[in-house]
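User: quick one
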Amino acid sequence: MRRIRADLHIHSVLSPCTDLGMSPEKIVAGARARGLDLIAVADHNAGWNGPYVRRAARGRPVVICAMEIQSEEEVEVLALFPDERTCQTLSEQIERVLPDIFCDPETFGDQLVVDDSGEIVRRVDRLLLSPVPWPLGEVVRRVRDLGGLAIPAHVDRVPGGLLGVLGLLPEGDWPALELAPWTSVEEACARWPELRGRALLRSSDAHSPGQIGRAWTELAVKTLDVEGLGEALTDPGRVRPSPPFKETPW
Amino acid sequence: MTVGELVRELGLEVLVAGDLEADVHGGYCADLLSEVLAHAAKGDIWITHQKHLNVVAVAKLKEIGAVVLVRGLRPPQEVTDRARAEGVTILVSPTSAFETAGRIHRALFP
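Assistant: Done. Structure below.
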């Protein structure tokens, strides 16, 4: 068993709300500087940059291809995929069903696919900040069917957090729940007692290089991949979220 | 005014009938269920776009008089099944949340 430090929620330049410095190279440099062993690149409703970050990292850190999917109810879910292919499969499915709203860079920011050497591969024109037309249960089912982990993101945050939006933890087999970077475990469990005894993650939700690794989770894993992560999450005793990162919530 | 009287006056569709004799004194508009948990009052008419199963749980917990889905939105069957089992009234209004709230307010406070 190996004790590792993971930041499983990092945005790249594919997210329009992200600093243009979040290229694959910069994400890798930031993760290394923070001593992260495992990261997940999770852009809004698309996972096109994960493979390039993985190439830039060459295993240091290990990179999970992921995305942050916004359900019909406007609940955000971290979807962590076992490989590039499955992440791409869901990205393509989502691309077909997202509302056809043009992402005006002046208004929303750029949505860029950037390769491991920093070159722009393409620009995604359709706005990725809209909810997909699938209810939460369907989002979870689609991620699971591809062998992925569906983990509600920053559950205590409004907007976008499962508990903020839906008030109570819905029935379901949740592998883990991610807390907002700024909430302590005690605060969250006091407000939502259903969080007690569950595997709780904390991640940076970084939108700029300086935010990478500002919050993290320590895990005891057998293997450093999504399967190993899923196995570790079955035992909340092997999951330790970092102290909260205090800042004004956005 | 009772839920049933409101239904007749506004011509709302009754998707699931709980207690239509319940008295209504006010309402609450929100799609964030955490807001409803924190601020809605017992007996309120709850006007929303949200049709997740948790709507039933929150309505039951807060003793909501009736849930009104706006813009003709229809919840999945698991929601109506659960509402029936829990005795939670679910109504559907064809108009927008703004229009629906305005009409309900006018009916309650003429």
